[in-house]
UniProtKB/TrEMBL annotation:
It comes from Streptomyces oryzae. Residues 9-92 form the Arginyl tRNA synthetase N-terminal domain. Its EC number is 6.1.1.19. The keyword Protein biosynthesis applies. Signal peptide: none annotated. NCBIfam families: argS (TIGR00456). GO terms for molecular function: arginine-tRNA ligase activity. This is Arginine--tRNA ligase. The gene is argS.
Amino acid sequence: MATVHSLAATVHQRVSDALSAALPEAASADPLLRRSDRADFQANGMLALAKKLKGNPRELAAKVTEALPAQDENAVIANIEVSGPGFLNITVADEAIMKNLVARRQDERLGVPYKDDPGTTVIDYSQPNVAKEMHVGHLRSTVIGDAVVHLLEHRGEKVVRRHHIGDWGTNFGMLIQYLIEHPHELDHESDAAGAKDAGEAAMARLNRLYKSSRALFDSDEDFKSRARDRVPALQSGDPETLALWHKIVDESKTYFQGVYDELDVEIRDPDIVGESAYNDDLQQVVKDLEESGVAVRSEGALCVFFEDVKGPDGTPTPLIVQKSNGGFGYAATDLAAIRNRIGELKADTLLYVVDARQSLHFRMVFETAQRAGWLPEGAARQLPFGTVLGKDGKPFKTREGETVRLVDLLDEAVDRAAAVVREKAATGDGEVTEEEIQRRAKQVGIGAVKYADLSNSMMRDYVFDLDRMVSLQGDTSVYLQYAYARVRSIFRKAGELKPVPHPELELAPAERALALHLDAFADTLVAAADEYEPHKVTAYLYELATLYSRFFENCPVLKADTKEQTENRLFLCDLTAEVLHQGLALLGIRTPERL
Ligand code: ARG
Protein backbone atom coordinates (compact mmCIF):
# COMPACT_ATOMS: atom_id res chain seq x y z
CA MET A 1 0.00 0.00 0.00
CA ALA A 2 1.29 3.42 -0.93
CA THR A 3 2.01 5.94 1.75
CA VAL A 4 -0.88 8.23 2.56
CA HIS A 5 0.38 11.78 2.75
CA SER A 6 -1.12 13.63 5.66
CA LEU A 7 -3.05 16.79 4.94
CA ALA A 8 -0.46 18.65 6.99
CA ALA A 9 2.27 17.37 4.66
CA THR A 10 0.25 18.22 1.55
CA VAL A 11 -0.62 21.72 2.72
CA HIS A 12 2.99 22.26 3.74
CA GLN A 13 4.12 21.29 0.26
CA ARG A 14 1.55 23.58 -1.43
CA VAL A 15 2.50 26.57 0.67
CA SER A 16 6.23 25.92 0.17
CA ASP A 17 5.72 25.74 -3.58
CA ALA A 18 3.72 28.97 -3.56
CA LEU A 19 6.41 30.58 -1.45
CA SER A 20 9.15 29.67 -3.91
CA ALA A 21 7.03 30.81 -6.84
CA ALA A 22 6.23 34.16 -5.23
CA LEU A 23 9.68 34.78 -3.76
CA PRO A 24 12.39 32.88 -5.61
CA GLU A 25 14.97 34.34 -3.22
CA ALA A 26 13.21 32.57 -0.31
CA ALA A 27 12.87 29.22 -2.00
CA SER A 28 14.00 27.09 0.91
CA ALA A 29 12.25 29.02 3.69
CA ASP A 30 10.08 26.98 6.05
CA PRO A 31 6.47 28.20 6.10
CA LEU A 32 6.25 26.95 9.72
CA LEU A 33 2.91 25.30 9.42
CA ARG A 34 1.01 24.07 12.43
CA ARG A 35 -2.47 23.07 13.49
CA SER A 36 -4.45 26.03 14.68
CA ASP A 37 -7.73 26.83 16.36
CA ARG A 38 -8.48 29.74 14.06
CA ALA A 39 -8.35 27.78 10.85
CA ASP A 40 -7.20 24.22 10.27
CA PHE A 41 -3.59 25.26 9.84
CA GLN A 42 -1.64 28.40 10.34
CA ALA A 43 1.69 29.31 8.72
CA ASN A 44 3.81 31.81 10.67
CA GLY A 45 6.89 31.62 8.52
CA MET A 46 6.20 34.91 6.74
CA LEU A 47 7.12 36.88 9.84
CA ALA A 48 10.70 35.71 10.08
CA LEU A 49 11.04 35.84 6.33
CA ALA A 50 9.89 39.46 6.12
CA LYS A 51 12.43 40.38 8.72
CA LYS A 52 15.15 38.74 6.68
CA LEU A 53 14.04 40.29 3.39
CA LYS A 54 13.22 43.59 5.07
CA GLY A 55 9.72 43.45 3.69
CA ASN A 56 6.22 43.75 5.06
CA PRO A 57 4.97 40.37 6.36
CA ARG A 58 1.35 40.99 5.36
CA GLU A 59 2.41 41.86 1.82
CA LEU A 60 4.61 38.78 1.63
CA ALA A 61 1.76 36.64 2.89
CA ALA A 62 -0.56 38.13 0.28
CA LYS A 63 1.94 37.31 -2.48
CA VAL A 64 2.09 33.70 -1.33
CA THR A 65 -1.69 33.51 -1.35
CA GLU A 66 -1.80 34.79 -4.93
CA ALA A 67 0.80 32.30 -6.01
CA LEU A 68 -1.33 29.35 -4.88
CA PRO A 69 -2.96 27.77 -7.90
CA ALA A 70 -6.62 28.78 -7.88
CA GLN A 71 -7.79 25.25 -8.54
CA ASP A 72 -5.44 23.16 -6.49
CA GLU A 73 -5.11 19.51 -7.37
CA ASN A 74 -7.55 17.32 -5.41
CA ALA A 75 -9.02 20.54 -4.01
CA VAL A 76 -7.26 20.20 -0.67
CA ILE A 77 -7.10 23.87 0.30
CA ALA A 78 -10.57 25.34 0.55
CA ASN A 79 -9.58 28.76 1.78
CA ILE A 80 -6.47 30.73 2.61
CA GLU A 81 -6.32 34.20 4.07
CA VAL A 82 -3.88 36.61 5.56
CA SER A 83 -4.49 37.43 9.18
CA GLY A 84 -2.95 39.39 12.04
CA PRO A 85 0.61 40.57 11.48
CA GLY A 86 1.05 38.29 8.47
CA PHE A 87 -0.07 34.80 9.31
CA LEU A 88 -1.63 32.58 6.72
CA ASN A 89 -4.80 30.89 7.90
CA ILE A 90 -5.56 27.82 5.87
CA THR A 91 -8.74 25.79 5.79
CA VAL A 92 -8.83 22.44 4.06
CA ALA A 93 -11.85 21.01 2.31
CA ASP A 94 -14.07 18.62 4.28
CA GLU A 95 -14.08 16.25 1.38
CA ALA A 96 -10.29 16.16 1.23
CA ILE A 97 -10.10 15.31 4.93
CA MET A 98 -12.50 12.43 4.63
CA LYS A 99 -10.90 11.07 1.47
CA ASN A 100 -7.56 10.99 3.23
CA LEU A 101 -9.07 9.06 6.12
CA VAL A 102 -10.67 6.61 3.74
CA ALA A 103 -7.26 5.93 2.21
CA ARG A 104 -5.84 5.37 5.71
CA ARG A 105 -8.61 3.01 6.73
CA GLN A 106 -8.01 0.90 3.63
CA ASP A 107 -4.43 0.30 4.68
CA GLU A 108 -3.94 -2.07 7.60
CA ARG A 109 -1.03 0.14 8.74
CA LEU A 110 -3.27 3.19 8.57
CA GLY A 111 -0.85 4.76 6.11
CA VAL A 112 2.19 4.63 8.38
CA PRO A 113 5.17 4.53 5.99
CA TYR A 114 8.10 2.15 6.20
CA LYS A 115 11.52 3.77 6.46
CA ASP A 116 13.19 4.48 3.15
CA ASP A 117 16.54 3.23 4.38
CA PRO A 118 15.99 0.67 7.15
CA GLY A 119 19.12 -0.52 8.92
CA THR A 120 19.93 -2.74 11.86
CA THR A 121 19.53 -1.42 15.38
CA VAL A 122 20.77 -3.32 18.41
CA ILE A 123 18.90 -2.18 21.48
CA ASP A 124 20.17 -2.92 24.97
CA TYR A 125 17.28 -2.78 27.44
CA SER A 126 15.79 -4.60 30.41
CA GLN A 127 18.99 -5.73 32.05
CA PRO A 128 18.17 -7.02 35.54
CA ASN A 129 20.79 -8.69 37.69
CA VAL A 130 20.99 -12.39 38.42
CA ALA A 131 20.14 -13.49 41.97
CA LYS A 132 18.61 -10.09 42.69
CA GLU A 133 15.08 -8.72 42.71
CA MET A 134 13.85 -6.48 39.90
CA HIS A 135 13.00 -2.94 40.99
CA VAL A 136 11.45 0.20 39.49
CA GLY A 137 14.62 1.09 37.60
CA HIS A 138 14.24 -2.15 35.67
CA LEU A 139 10.62 -1.24 35.03
CA ARG A 140 11.58 1.88 33.13
CA SER A 141 14.21 0.22 31.00
CA THR A 142 11.84 -2.63 30.16
CA VAL A 143 8.81 -0.51 29.34
CA ILE A 144 10.64 2.16 27.35
CA GLY A 145 12.79 -0.40 25.56
CA ASP A 146 9.77 -2.50 24.62
CA ALA A 147 7.97 0.53 23.16
CA VAL A 148 11.03 1.65 21.19
CA VAL A 149 11.46 -1.88 19.80
CA HIS A 150 7.86 -1.92 18.57
CA LEU A 151 8.07 1.57 17.08
CA LEU A 152 11.28 0.79 15.19
CA GLU A 153 10.03 -2.55 13.93
CA HIS A 154 6.86 -0.90 12.78
CA ARG A 155 8.98 1.40 10.63
CA GLY A 156 10.68 -1.59 9.05
CA GLU A 157 13.96 -1.34 10.95
CA LYS A 158 15.66 -4.66 11.73
CA VAL A 159 15.89 -4.74 15.51
CA VAL A 160 18.12 -7.04 17.54
CA ARG A 161 17.25 -7.08 21.23
CA ARG A 162 19.93 -7.52 23.82
CA HIS A 163 19.29 -7.96 27.53
CA HIS A 164 22.69 -7.31 29.06
CA ILE A 165 21.88 -8.94 32.38
CA GLY A 166 24.30 -8.79 35.31
CA ASP A 167 25.23 -12.47 35.38
CA TRP A 168 28.94 -12.28 36.09
CA GLY A 169 31.28 -11.03 38.75
CA THR A 170 32.78 -11.77 42.12
CA ASN A 171 29.42 -12.18 43.85
CA PHE A 172 29.02 -15.52 42.15
CA GLY A 173 32.10 -16.92 43.87
CA MET A 174 30.27 -16.71 47.16
CA LEU A 175 26.98 -18.14 45.93
CA ILE A 176 28.58 -21.02 44.06
CA GLN A 177 30.94 -21.96 46.89
CA TYR A 178 27.98 -22.07 49.25
CA LEU A 179 26.10 -24.32 46.85
CA ILE A 180 29.06 -26.65 46.62
CA GLU A 181 29.07 -26.95 50.38
CA HIS A 182 25.28 -27.06 50.71
CA PRO A 183 24.22 -28.92 47.57
CA HIS A 184 20.51 -29.01 48.44
CA GLU A 185 20.09 -25.32 49.01
CA LEU A 186 18.17 -24.66 45.78
CA ASP A 187 16.22 -27.92 45.84
CA HIS A 188 12.47 -27.77 45.77
CA GLU A 189 9.59 -30.19 45.61
CA SER A 190 7.72 -29.39 42.44
CA ASP A 191 7.31 -26.43 40.19
CA ALA A 192 4.55 -24.01 41.01
CA ALA A 193 1.87 -23.59 38.39
CA GLY A 194 1.98 -20.39 36.40
CA ALA A 195 4.93 -18.22 35.44
CA LYS A 196 4.36 -15.71 38.20
CA ASP A 197 4.23 -18.17 41.09
CA ALA A 198 7.11 -20.21 39.71
CA GLY A 199 9.12 -17.02 39.43
CA GLU A 200 8.31 -15.88 42.94
CA ALA A 201 9.27 -19.28 44.34
CA ALA A 202 12.58 -19.19 42.45
CA MET A 203 13.34 -15.72 43.77
CA ALA A 204 12.56 -16.84 47.32
CA ARG A 205 15.09 -19.65 46.98
CA LEU A 206 17.69 -17.26 45.57
CA ASN A 207 17.10 -14.83 48.41
CA ARG A 208 17.57 -17.63 50.91
CA LEU A 209 20.77 -18.71 49.18
CA TYR A 210 22.02 -15.14 49.13
CA LYS A 211 21.27 -14.56 52.81
CA SER A 212 22.84 -17.75 54.08
CA SER A 213 25.94 -17.45 51.96
CA ARG A 214 26.35 -13.81 52.90
CA ALA A 215 26.10 -14.63 56.58
CA LEU A 216 28.77 -17.28 56.27
CA PHE A 217 30.96 -15.04 54.11
CA ASP A 218 30.85 -12.29 56.73
CA SER A 219 31.49 -14.57 59.70
CA ASP A 220 33.84 -17.26 58.46
CA GLU A 221 37.25 -16.21 57.12
CA ASP A 222 37.97 -19.66 55.68
CA PHE A 223 34.73 -19.66 53.73
CA LYS A 224 35.50 -16.17 52.54
CA SER A 225 38.78 -17.24 51.04
CA ARG A 226 37.26 -20.39 49.48
CA ALA A 227 34.56 -18.15 47.97
CA ARG A 228 37.21 -15.82 46.52
CA ASP A 229 39.09 -18.74 44.99
CA ARG A 230 35.90 -19.80 43.30
CA VAL A 231 35.89 -16.68 41.09
CA PRO A 232 38.88 -17.64 38.90
CA ALA A 233 37.44 -21.16 38.65
CA LEU A 234 34.29 -19.65 37.21
CA GLN A 235 36.14 -17.34 34.85
CA SER A 236 38.29 -20.11 33.49
CA GLY A 237 35.29 -22.33 32.89
CA ASP A 238 35.74 -25.09 35.49
CA PRO A 239 32.86 -27.50 34.69
CA GLU A 240 31.53 -28.04 38.22
CA THR A 241 31.61 -24.32 38.94
CA LEU A 242 29.98 -23.50 35.63
CA ALA A 243 27.20 -26.01 36.18
CA LEU A 244 26.24 -24.40 39.47
CA TRP A 245 26.49 -20.95 37.95
CA HIS A 246 24.03 -22.10 35.26
CA LYS A 247 21.70 -23.33 37.94
CA ILE A 248 21.66 -19.90 39.58
CA VAL A 249 21.20 -18.09 36.27
CA ASP A 250 18.34 -20.40 35.33
CA GLU A 251 16.58 -19.81 38.64
CA SER A 252 16.88 -16.10 37.97
CA LYS A 253 15.54 -16.39 34.47
CA THR A 254 12.53 -18.24 35.84
CA TYR A 255 12.02 -15.30 38.15
CA PHE A 256 12.52 -12.68 35.41
CA GLN A 257 10.04 -14.43 33.14
CA GLY A 258 7.47 -14.39 35.92
CA VAL A 259 7.84 -10.63 36.19
CA TYR A 260 7.81 -10.16 32.41
CA ASP A 261 4.69 -12.26 32.21
CA GLU A 262 2.99 -10.09 34.81
CA LEU A 263 4.24 -6.99 33.02
CA ASP A 264 2.91 -8.36 29.74
CA VAL A 265 6.13 -7.94 27.78
CA GLU A 266 7.74 -10.53 25.59
CA ILE A 267 11.41 -11.11 26.42
CA ARG A 268 12.89 -13.99 24.47
CA ASP A 269 15.50 -16.23 25.97
CA PRO A 270 17.97 -16.07 23.03
CA ASP A 271 18.04 -12.27 23.40
CA ILE A 272 19.20 -12.54 26.99
CA VAL A 273 22.91 -12.18 26.38
CA GLY A 274 24.42 -11.10 29.67
CA GLU A 275 27.80 -9.85 30.74
CA SER A 276 29.12 -13.42 30.93
CA ALA A 277 28.70 -13.90 27.19
CA TYR A 278 31.64 -11.56 26.54
CA ASN A 279 34.00 -13.22 29.01
CA ASP A 280 36.14 -14.83 26.33
CA ASP A 281 36.60 -11.55 24.46
CA LEU A 282 37.88 -9.49 27.36
CA GLN A 283 41.56 -10.36 27.00
CA GLN A 284 41.46 -9.31 23.37
CA VAL A 285 39.79 -6.02 24.26
CA VAL A 286 42.57 -5.32 26.75
CA LYS A 287 45.29 -6.31 24.34
CA ASP A 288 43.96 -4.17 21.49
CA LEU A 289 43.37 -1.14 23.66
CA GLU A 290 46.80 -1.37 25.17
CA GLU A 291 48.60 -1.95 21.89
CA SER A 292 46.87 0.92 20.16
CA GLY A 293 47.63 3.18 23.09
CA VAL A 294 43.96 4.02 23.60
CA ALA A 295 44.33 2.70 27.15
CA VAL A 296 47.32 2.99 29.44
CA ARG A 297 48.42 1.31 32.67
CA SER A 298 48.05 3.53 35.66
CA GLU A 299 48.82 2.17 39.11
CA GLY A 300 48.43 -1.29 37.63
CA ALA A 301 44.95 -0.69 36.23
CA LEU A 302 44.23 -0.33 32.53
CA CYS A 303 42.69 3.10 32.06
CA VAL A 304 41.36 5.40 29.38
CA PHE A 305 41.60 9.12 30.09
CA PHE A 306 39.46 11.99 28.85
CA GLU A 307 40.18 15.69 28.58
CA ASP A 308 36.87 16.70 30.04
CA VAL A 309 36.25 14.06 32.69
CA LYS A 310 37.68 15.09 36.02
CA GLY A 311 36.83 14.51 39.64
CA PRO A 312 35.93 17.34 42.02
CA ASP A 313 39.61 17.85 42.91
CA GLY A 314 40.58 18.29 39.26
CA THR A 315 42.32 14.94 38.82
CA PRO A 316 41.18 13.01 35.75
CA THR A 317 38.64 10.23 36.28
CA PRO A 318 39.53 7.39 33.92
CA LEU A 319 37.41 4.62 32.52
CA ILE A 320 38.84 1.51 34.14
CA VAL A 321 38.88 -1.37 31.69
CA GLN A 322 40.82 -3.76 33.88
CA LYS A 323 41.44 -3.47 37.58
CA SER A 324 44.93 -3.74 39.03
CA ASN A 325 44.13 -7.25 40.33
CA GLY A 326 43.36 -8.35 36.77
CA GLY A 327 39.58 -8.31 37.26
CA PHE A 328 37.21 -6.82 34.73
CA GLY A 329 34.35 -4.47 35.38
CA TYR A 330 31.33 -3.23 33.62
CA ALA A 331 33.37 -1.15 31.11
CA ALA A 332 35.20 -4.14 29.64
CA THR A 333 32.03 -6.11 28.94
CA ASP A 334 30.34 -3.08 27.42
CA LEU A 335 33.33 -2.58 25.11
CA ALA A 336 33.37 -6.23 24.09
CA ALA A 337 29.62 -6.01 23.46
CA ILE A 338 30.12 -3.03 21.15
CA ARG A 339 32.63 -4.97 19.07
CA ASN A 340 30.21 -7.87 18.84
CA ARG A 341 27.23 -5.70 17.95
CA ILE A 342 28.99 -3.67 15.27
CA GLY A 343 31.31 -6.40 14.01
CA GLU A 344 29.18 -9.56 14.18
CA LEU A 345 25.62 -8.35 14.35
CA LYS A 346 26.35 -5.64 11.74
CA ALA A 347 24.47 -2.97 13.61
CA ASP A 348 24.19 0.52 12.15
CA THR A 349 22.81 1.91 15.38
CA LEU A 350 23.33 0.92 19.01
CA LEU A 351 20.82 2.02 21.61
CA TYR A 352 21.12 1.72 25.37
CA VAL A 353 18.02 2.19 27.47
CA VAL A 354 19.74 2.80 30.78
CA ASP A 355 19.27 5.09 33.77
CA ALA A 356 20.56 8.66 33.28
CA ARG A 357 22.84 8.17 36.28
CA GLN A 358 24.99 5.97 34.06
CA SER A 359 25.43 8.61 31.34
CA LEU A 360 29.05 9.33 32.14
CA HIS A 361 29.90 5.64 31.91
CA PHE A 362 28.36 5.38 28.46
CA ARG A 363 29.94 8.59 27.24
CA MET A 364 33.36 7.20 28.20
CA VAL A 365 32.65 3.76 26.78
CA PHE A 366 31.44 5.16 23.44
CA GLU A 367 34.39 7.52 23.19
CA THR A 368 36.83 4.69 23.95
CA ALA A 369 35.26 2.44 21.33
CA GLN A 370 35.48 5.25 18.78
CA ARG A 371 39.13 5.91 19.53
CA ALA A 372 39.79 2.21 19.12
CA GLY A 373 38.05 2.28 15.75
CA TRP A 374 35.31 -0.16 16.81
CA LEU A 375 32.44 2.26 16.69
CA PRO A 376 31.62 4.80 13.97
CA GLU A 377 30.98 8.26 15.30
CA GLY A 378 27.38 8.89 16.25
CA ALA A 379 26.37 5.23 15.89
CA ALA A 380 25.79 4.64 19.60
CA ARG A 381 23.33 6.45 21.73
CA GLN A 382 22.09 6.12 25.26
CA LEU A 383 18.39 6.69 25.77
CA PRO A 384 18.73 7.81 29.36
CA PHE A 385 15.78 7.96 31.70
CA GLY A 386 15.07 9.70 34.97
CA THR A 387 14.44 8.24 38.39
CA VAL A 388 11.13 6.96 39.73
CA LEU A 389 10.29 8.89 42.87
CA GLY A 390 8.08 8.18 45.84
CA LYS A 391 5.36 10.60 46.92
CA ASP A 392 7.95 12.34 49.11
CA GLY A 393 9.87 13.31 45.98
CA LYS A 394 12.81 11.08 46.88
CA PRO A 395 13.91 7.92 45.02
CA PHE A 396 11.24 5.32 45.55
CA LYS A 397 11.87 3.24 48.68
CA THR A 398 9.81 1.20 51.11
CA ARG A 399 9.12 2.60 54.54
CA GLU A 400 12.07 0.55 55.78
CA GLY A 401 14.29 2.28 53.24
CA GLU A 402 14.60 -0.71 50.94
CA THR A 403 14.11 -0.66 47.19
CA VAL A 404 10.57 -1.52 46.21
CA ARG A 405 10.10 -4.89 44.56
CA LEU A 406 8.68 -4.52 41.08
CA VAL A 407 6.27 -7.42 41.58
CA ASP A 408 4.76 -5.76 44.64
CA LEU A 409 4.17 -2.58 42.70
CA LEU A 410 2.55 -4.41 39.82
CA ASP A 411 0.31 -6.38 42.20
CA GLU A 412 -0.83 -3.19 43.80
CA ALA A 413 -1.50 -1.56 40.44
CA VAL A 414 -3.67 -4.49 39.42
CA ASP A 415 -5.53 -4.35 42.76
CA ARG A 416 -6.29 -0.66 42.33
CA ALA A 417 -7.36 -1.25 38.76
CA ALA A 418 -9.68 -4.03 39.92
CA ALA A 419 -11.51 -1.52 42.10
CA VAL A 420 -11.99 0.81 39.13
CA VAL A 421 -13.10 -1.99 36.83
CA ARG A 422 -15.49 -3.40 39.45
CA GLU A 423 -17.15 -0.04 39.88
CA LYS A 424 -17.55 0.42 36.13
CA ALA A 425 -18.92 -3.10 35.78
CA ALA A 426 -21.50 -2.47 38.51
CA THR A 427 -22.99 0.46 36.58
CA GLY A 428 -22.77 -1.29 33.21
CA ASP A 429 -25.12 -3.78 31.61
CA GLY A 430 -25.15 -7.39 32.74
CA GLU A 431 -23.28 -9.53 35.24
CA VAL A 432 -19.52 -9.60 35.07
CA THR A 433 -17.73 -12.60 36.56
CA GLU A 434 -14.89 -12.14 39.03
CA GLU A 435 -12.59 -13.86 36.57
CA GLU A 436 -13.47 -11.31 33.91
CA ILE A 437 -12.92 -8.47 36.37
CA GLN A 438 -9.45 -9.81 37.14
CA ARG A 439 -8.64 -10.16 33.45
CA ARG A 440 -9.62 -6.55 32.73
CA ALA A 441 -7.93 -5.34 35.91
CA LYS A 442 -4.65 -6.77 34.73
CA GLN A 443 -4.92 -5.01 31.36
CA VAL A 444 -5.92 -1.77 33.03
CA GLY A 445 -3.44 -1.86 35.92
CA ILE A 446 -0.41 -2.92 33.91
CA GLY A 447 -1.37 -0.51 31.14
CA ALA A 448 -1.56 2.30 33.69
CA VAL A 449 1.94 1.62 34.98
CA LYS A 450 3.37 1.48 31.47
CA TYR A 451 1.51 4.56 30.33
CA ALA A 452 2.62 6.64 33.30
CA ASP A 453 6.18 5.66 32.57
CA LEU A 454 5.97 6.44 28.87
CA SER A 455 3.91 9.62 29.03
CA ASN A 456 6.57 11.39 31.04
CA SER A 457 9.40 12.62 28.89
CA MET A 458 12.16 10.12 29.39
CA MET A 459 14.67 12.32 31.16
CA ARG A 460 12.20 13.53 33.77
CA ASP A 461 12.01 11.96 37.18
CA TYR A 462 8.42 11.13 37.99
CA VAL A 463 6.42 10.34 41.07
CA PHE A 464 4.96 6.85 41.23
CA ASP A 465 1.40 7.65 42.20
CA LEU A 466 -0.99 4.75 41.64
CA ASP A 467 -4.11 6.76 42.51
CA ARG A 468 -3.38 9.11 39.67
CA MET A 469 -2.28 6.37 37.30
CA VAL A 470 -5.54 4.40 37.46
CA SER A 471 -7.78 7.45 37.38
CA LEU A 472 -10.44 7.62 34.68
CA GLN A 473 -9.81 11.33 34.38
CA GLY A 474 -6.73 12.98 33.00
CA ASP A 475 -3.77 11.81 30.99
CA THR A 476 -3.94 8.11 31.83
CA SER A 477 -4.20 4.89 29.88
CA VAL A 478 -7.48 4.16 31.64
CA TYR A 479 -8.94 7.24 30.01
CA LEU A 480 -7.75 6.00 26.61
CA GLN A 481 -8.97 2.46 27.24
CA TYR A 482 -12.31 3.89 28.27
CA ALA A 483 -12.54 5.87 25.02
CA TYR A 484 -11.84 2.65 23.14
CA ALA A 485 -14.44 0.71 25.10
CA ARG A 486 -17.00 3.44 24.45
CA VAL A 487 -16.52 3.09 20.71
CA ARG A 488 -16.89 -0.66 20.95
CA SER A 489 -20.09 -0.23 22.89
CA ILE A 490 -21.54 1.99 20.15
CA PHE A 491 -20.87 -0.78 17.67
CA ARG A 492 -22.62 -3.31 19.88
CA LYS A 493 -25.68 -1.09 19.77
CA ALA A 494 -25.41 -0.18 16.09
CA GLY A 495 -27.22 -3.30 14.85
CA GLU A 496 -27.40 -3.24 11.07
CA LEU A 497 -25.71 0.13 10.78
CA LYS A 498 -22.16 -0.02 9.46
CA PRO A 499 -19.32 2.51 9.25
CA VAL A 500 -19.46 3.94 5.75
CA PRO A 501 -17.63 7.14 4.85
CA HIS A 502 -19.54 9.86 3.02
CA PRO A 503 -16.92 12.41 1.99
CA GLU A 504 -19.54 14.65 0.39
CA LEU A 505 -21.07 15.50 3.77
CA GLU A 506 -20.24 18.73 5.50
CA LEU A 507 -18.38 18.19 8.78
CA ALA A 508 -19.34 19.70 12.13
CA PRO A 509 -16.48 21.45 14.00
CA ALA A 510 -15.98 18.56 16.45
CA GLU A 511 -15.89 16.12 13.55
CA ARG A 512 -13.29 18.18 11.69
CA ALA A 513 -11.07 18.45 14.73
CA LEU A 514 -11.25 14.71 15.33
CA ALA A 515 -10.74 13.89 11.67
CA LEU A 516 -7.73 16.18 11.24
CA HIS A 517 -6.14 14.66 14.31
CA LEU A 518 -6.77 11.12 13.05
CA ASP A 519 -4.97 12.12 9.89
CA ALA A 520 -1.86 13.02 11.91
CA PHE A 521 -1.36 9.49 13.33
CA ALA A 522 1.24 8.41 10.81
CA ASP A 523 3.29 11.61 11.07
CA THR A 524 3.31 11.20 14.85
CA LEU A 525 4.50 7.60 14.72
CA VAL A 526 7.27 8.49 12.30
CA ALA A 527 8.49 11.28 14.58
CA ALA A 528 8.22 9.10 17.71
CA ALA A 529 10.13 6.22 16.12
CA ASP A 530 12.80 8.31 14.43
CA GLU A 531 13.48 10.33 17.55
CA TYR A 532 13.03 7.42 20.00
CA GLU A 533 10.33 9.26 21.89
CA PRO A 534 7.38 7.06 22.82
CA HIS A 535 5.86 9.92 24.79
CA LYS A 536 4.99 11.57 21.48
CA VAL A 537 2.59 8.68 20.94
CA THR A 538 1.01 8.96 24.38
CA ALA A 539 0.53 12.72 23.93
CA TYR A 540 -1.07 12.13 20.55
CA LEU A 541 -3.41 9.42 21.85
CA TYR A 542 -4.45 11.49 24.83
CA GLU A 543 -5.38 14.34 22.51
CA LEU A 544 -7.24 11.86 20.33
CA ALA A 545 -9.31 10.58 23.25
CA THR A 546 -10.07 14.15 24.28
CA LEU A 547 -11.22 15.10 20.78
CA TYR A 548 -13.24 11.93 20.60
CA SER A 549 -15.10 12.78 23.79
CA ARG A 550 -15.86 16.23 22.47
CA PHE A 551 -17.13 14.71 19.24
CA PHE A 552 -19.19 12.21 21.20
CA GLU A 553 -20.82 14.96 23.25
CA ASN A 554 -21.57 17.20 20.27
CA CYS A 555 -22.36 14.83 17.46
CA PRO A 556 -25.00 12.15 18.03
CA VAL A 557 -23.89 9.02 16.25
CA LEU A 558 -26.74 6.53 16.23
CA LYS A 559 -29.34 9.30 16.47
CA ALA A 560 -27.89 11.56 13.77
CA ASP A 561 -30.25 13.37 11.38
CA THR A 562 -29.69 11.07 8.44
CA LYS A 563 -28.53 7.55 7.88
CA GLU A 564 -25.56 8.86 5.87
CA GLN A 565 -24.49 11.00 8.77
CA THR A 566 -24.72 8.08 11.17
CA GLU A 567 -22.63 5.95 8.82
CA ASN A 568 -20.07 8.71 8.40
CA ARG A 569 -19.82 9.18 12.15
CA LEU A 570 -19.54 5.45 12.68
CA PHE A 571 -16.65 5.58 10.25
CA LEU A 572 -14.94 8.20 12.43
CA CYS A 573 -15.65 6.11 15.54
CA ASP A 574 -14.24 3.01 13.92
CA LEU A 575 -11.07 4.74 12.79
CA THR A 576 -10.63 6.30 16.25
CA ALA A 577 -10.83 2.85 17.83
CA GLU A 578 -8.36 1.43 15.35
CA VAL A 579 -5.87 4.23 15.95
CA LEU A 580 -6.22 3.85 19.73
CA HIS A 581 -5.77 0.13 19.42
CA GLN A 582 -2.72 0.25 17.14
CA GLY A 583 -1.13 3.15 19.01
CA LEU A 584 -1.55 1.56 22.43
CA ALA A 585 -0.41 -1.84 21.14
CA LEU A 586 2.88 -0.29 20.02
CA LEU A 587 3.32 0.93 23.57
CA GLY A 588 2.58 -2.52 24.96
CA ILE A 589 -0.85 -1.53 26.32
CA ARG A 590 -4.00 -3.60 25.78
CA THR A 591 -7.40 -2.35 24.76
CA PRO A 592 -10.13 -4.36 26.49
CA GLU A 593 -13.46 -4.44 24.67
CA ARG A 594 -15.29 -3.34 27.82
CA LEU A 595 -14.16 -1.53 30.91
N1 ARG B 1 22.47 -4.49 34.97
C1 ARG B 1 22.59 -3.09 35.08
C2 ARG B 1 21.68 -2.56 36.23
O1 ARG B 1 20.84 -3.25 36.71
C3 ARG B 1 22.27 -2.34 33.82
C4 ARG B 1 23.01 -2.76 32.57
C5 ARG B 1 22.98 -1.72 31.51
N2 ARG B 1 23.40 -2.16 30.24
C6 ARG B 1 24.66 -2.19 29.82
N3 ARG B 1 24.95 -2.55 28.63
N4 ARG B 1 25.61 -1.83 30.58
O2 ARG B 1 21.86 -1.43 36.64
